[in-house]
Amino acid sequence: MNQKNIDILLAIEDQSFYQHSGFNVGRIFKTIFSNLKNQKSEGASTITQQYIKNVYFSNKKTFSRKIKELYYAIKLEQAVPKNQILEGYLNCIYFGNDIYGIADASKYYFNKDYTMLSIQEMTTLVALLNAPTYYSEHLDQLELRKNTLLKTLFKHNIITFDEFEIAKAPIQFHYNKNIYNSNLLFYVDHVLKEYEKINIPNKFNQVIEIETAYRPSMNEINLKTKGDYASISVDKDGYILSLIGGKNYMTSNYNIVTKGKRDIGSTIKPLLYYEALKCGFSIQKAYYSSPYSFIYHNEQVTIKNNNSKYPNRKITMKEALAASDNIYAIKMHQEMGFKTLANHLKKYKIIVEPLPSLALGSVGMSLYDLTRIYTQFFTEGKYYSLSTIKKVKVKNKLLYTKKPKYKILGDSKYFKQIKELMQYTFDPTIPNATAATLYPYLKEKCYGKSGSTLYDSYMIGFNDKVLVAAWSGYIDNQELNEIEVKQLARKVFVNQINFA
């Protein structure tokens, strides 16, 4: 940043920055007197104090926080050069619209590098700092504050009269709202949450290196759609390679993958058939598939296939899984006993009522939890704890290594058998195979399962290297009627598994 723009910032935010030791006693008393006189509540924090608050504290105003903030500011001044403190401040300060740091603010508001900011633009960004959320939404008030600051800058000889005259012209914004990789931000959020749980002690000015399993090629999908989508992919050690929590982090940072608890539809059927094999059923077990009704608790229950397509003949588990046949699933669920699948889900700490509809996926869980369950088919028996972080170094010293962690919750023989059946989901020679249309687009042999509810669409599967789970629908639980939105999960799946 050029010296003129640094002078503008310091003139407004902290005139004695290069003289004080972290706090400014004169400014504190002057601000207290001014606040009492004008019945206002303006701050007296130095840039150092603001930097400390932004990095280590919340915006909650308490006396204890201010004391801690003051103490740490003094300690920081003793340990770190002024220019480094100023650089840190400029990199973390908030400018509204989820924008942090002068570099991103100049890209977002003016679509230019921060080194190229004019006096007018720099003063506008400094004007935002007083109330970034308010001013970024009330541009008329931001214009007034910018011009007030320009008068102050001229009065203190920071800018000339000619510079003042040019800069007081109405500001022209050139928004660039795509400065962030939206998908990367979801991944970074998850990394930081994992890092907090590791609880590594850190000190001021430490360089912390976090090595992750991030795969940029799998995380770059950006689809224009009115629906929502999300996905997660993992490798055979349980490391998270990509995590897309929604279609636009800047619109909503709500992470559907980890927080969205929704019915999982027919993606539950591999678990049902795994239990069937455990109970002694054969893959060759056949049921007649046609419209089906039965009595449950003195009421008639009618089961239908999607789109009312029925073979009207006996089918085996292979075809039932490929075509996601509901009739086959319910009949097997009945014959095993409704409690069998419910008891299996308890292994994952999922407690559900043993209802007939359980075989069709009427159980809520997040895409993250569903992916963990599917790691057992992917690895033929290992139920993984998922992680983005591999290693953490502080000052080049290795302080943490994440080793793959898993449990054995079942029999690998049966997981392998179901895995082999899951390849037929993509087989165009199987009548009504639910993902057969994806077969021409897949670069490698895949195994998987689709699923749908009135509100959700799923495609989850894997090749020899990665497992990808994708969801599409609406966050607000609108009914899923549009074919385009229903197909989004499959589109995301193909895109990611092909770029693994």
Number of alpha- plus pi-helical segments: 19
Shape: elongated
Q: Strand share of the residues?
A: 15-25%
Helix content: 40-55%
What's the short story on this structure?
With 500 residues, the chain is an alpha+beta fold. It has 19 helices and 16 strands.
Task: Write up this protein.
- This protein has helices at 3-13, 25-38, 47-56, 63-79, 82-92, 102-110, 119-128, 132-137, 139-155, 161-167, 182-198, 256-259, 269-278, 317-323, 326-336, 338-345, 367-378, 412-422, 483-498, and strands spanning 208-212, 228-235, 240-244, 262-263, 287-289, 292-296, 299-303, 313-315, 364-365, 382-384, 389-394, 397-401, 406-408, 447-452, 456-462, 466-473.
- It has 500 residues and is α+β, with helices and mostly antiparallel strands.
- Helix 3 (47-56) packs across helix 4 (63-79), helix 3 packs across helix 5 (82-92) and helix 15 (326-336) packs across helix 16 (338-345).
- The radius of gyration is 29 Å and the shape is elongated.
- The two termini are 40 Å apart.
- Residues 29-42 have low confidence and may be disordered.
List keywords for this structure.
500 residues; alpha+beta; five-stranded antiparallel β-sheet
Secondary structure layout plus pairing:
Layout: H1 3-13, H2 25-38, H3 47-56, H4 63-79, H5 82-92, H6 102-110, H7 119-128, H8 132-137, H9 139-155, H10 161-167, H11 182-198, E1 208-212, E2 228-235, E3 240-244, H12 256-259, E4 262-263, H13 269-278, E5 287-289, E6 292-296, E7 299-303, E8 313-315, H14 317-323, H15 326-336, H16 338-345, E9 364-365, H17 367-378, E10 382-384, E11 389-394, E12 397-401, E13 406-408, H18 412-422, E14 447-452, E15 456-462, E16 466-473, H19 483-498
Antiparallel strand pairs: 1-11, 2-3, 2-16, 4-9, 5-8, 6-7, 10-13, 11-12, 14-15, 15-16
